[in-house]
Amino acid sequence: MTYACLALLALLGLCALPMVDASAAPADDLPAVVLETTLGPITVELDRAKAPTTVDNFLKYVDSGHFNGTIFHRVIPGFMIQGGGFSQDMQEKPTGRPIKNEAGNGLTNRRGTLAMARTSNPDSATAQFFVNLKDNTFLDRAQAQDGYGYTVFGRVTGGMEVVDRIAGAQTTRRGAYDDVPVQPILITAAKRAPKS
Fold first, then answer.
1. CA 118 to mean position of chain CA atoms
2. What whole-number distance in Å separates Cα of residue 93 and Cα of residue 91?
3. Is 131:80 a contact under the CB 8 Å cutoff?
4. What is the mean pLDDT of residues 116-140?
5. Which residues contact 106 (CB under 8 A, 6 or more apart)?
6. Contact present, 48 and 58 (Cβ < 8 Å)
7. What is the C-alpha separation between 156 and 32, in angstroms, rounded?
8. SS3 of 164, please?
9. What is the average pLDDT across 110-131?
10. What domains are defined for the chain?
11. pTM to 2 decimals?
12. Which one, 65, 81, 88, 157, has the greatest CB density within 10 A?
């Protein structure tokens, strides 16, 4: 029976069309995002199964265009590069509400992983994130001095050489902020990667 036929019968009250619950559709557990930067693209794969709140939060910022025009504002060679929160003139962009720390998810702060930046409050992450340049397992919940750690929620799957180029940028102090690249390194666009 064709859909048109079923629709006509449903309209006449002779049968009921099945209701489709969109929330019942399986979520993409490994969505990918491309961060287009002024030094080249970085592709990251997110782990929704291990960090569902963090991944959905990050994708909200991607989809809203929040990251477009932000800079990598903190670059520390041999440690990490951080971005997602400041415009080129070092103005902090407004964000949504902070999210719960999910650092106890079994993922670890190894080279090439993506984690959420936060303040001393473990549940304060909003939009800022960082990419680990080396294994920084002291940031994991199991080893963190504060007992909470930093939530890993994805990993770089393409463009690690771009991450390393960003890590090599000359930095300076700008206002109250240390480790800011002298030449701004922008995220020109952040978008979901098409499914392969």
1. 13
2. 6
3. yes
4. 98
5. 50
6. no
7. 10
8. helix
9. 98
10. 25-192 (2.40.100.10)
11. 0.85
12. 81
